[in-house]
Amino acid sequence: MRFRKYMLFLAIAALAVLLVACGTDSEEENTGSEDTTSASADTNTDEPESESAELEGNVVVDGSGTVYPLMARLAEEYMITEQEGVSVEVSRAGTSAGFEKFLAENGTDFNDASRHIKDEEAAAADDLGIEVKELKVALDGLTFVIHPDNDWAAEMTPEELTSIFLADGGVDKWSDINPDWPDEEINAMGPNENHGTYEFFYESILDKQDLKSDVNLQQEYSTLVSLVSEDINGIAFFGFGYYVNNQDSLQAVSVDFGDGTVEPSLDTIAEDGDYADFTRPVFTYLNVNNAKEKAHVLDFAVYVMNNVNTFAGETGFAPIPDEEAKELISDLEGLK
């Protein structure tokens, strides 16, 4: 009898162990099933888009060689820090040549310009159905440069400077300006007609008077830098930025506008400053049609106006007033 009770006890104990084990396996299976369902739910959940969406595409910029260093710097920073999927190509055909590429079917997205758009260019845009937005990006100072060893012409008046380039200026040699200066031929140089800098000089400084036929006009600013740096009798004009980046091989002429000489600098270049007579705004023009159709074009335009004053100084430009930049940003935001 005791033996039977003992065997029954063992059977009940074994059954209890078996039931506990089965229950544990069931819990483990259920736990695994819940994890899988949770992971699946996470995978299928649509996450909200980030405020700064990743964009892709190409932005094409051409135009002014003067504005080129600023726009190239902005493009570089934008592609690195803002939108790695957007390629911004910046070229420098010159303001006028750039407008020809801009005002065309499938033309460029932006045209940099060191002058305002002309009436005939604006009319061409209308004919093509292209809406154009002018964006003022910086202030530039027209700068006259000479050889570093030229120790006689480091200070001149506007009249003396223009006489060197004018057909009827009566100046061929340095001694024609001042008899104490060398009796040597002056080699006058500057950018060619493709550049807004040439047009600003011709229209605003020379008042559309004819240049001398022997003024050496070049397409590339780097060529002008090399020519003047190798010629003690050379003199050229271009944007302040090209002087700043080549101060080791060039000397800037200080200009006496009537109240003492003024050296072009970021402190004096301003529309109401000491160098105002030789100061001009520079621009980039936006194809608004492209900006409305391509999010990355508009995004780059907004980035430019948000950051021009950050990079203006390091590329040789004086900044525009903050309120002007903010107004343009607001205009661009309204295109979204």
From TrEMBL:
Involved in the system for phosphate transport across the cytoplasmic membrane. It is a lipid-anchor. Residues 44-54 have a biased composition (Acidic residues). Belongs to the PstS family. Residues 27-56 are annotated as: Disordered. Coiled coil: none annotated. Keywords: Cell membrane, Lipoprotein, Membrane, Palmitate, Phosphate transport, Signal, Transport. InterPro entries: PBP_domain, Phos-bd, Phosphate_ABC_transporter. It is found in: Cell membrane. PANTHER family: PERIPLASMIC PHOSPHATE BINDING COMPONENT OF PHOSPHATE ABC TRANSPORTER, PHOSPHATE-BINDING PROTEIN PSTS. The complex is composed of two ATP-binding proteins (PstB), two transmembrane proteins (PstC and PstA) and a solute-binding protein (PstS). Residues 50-305 form the PBP domain. This is Phosphate-binding protein. PROSITE patterns: PROKAR_LIPOPROTEIN. Residues 1-21 form the signal peptide. Pfam families: PBP_like_2 (PF12849). Residues 33-43 have a biased composition (Low complexity). Its main location: membrane.
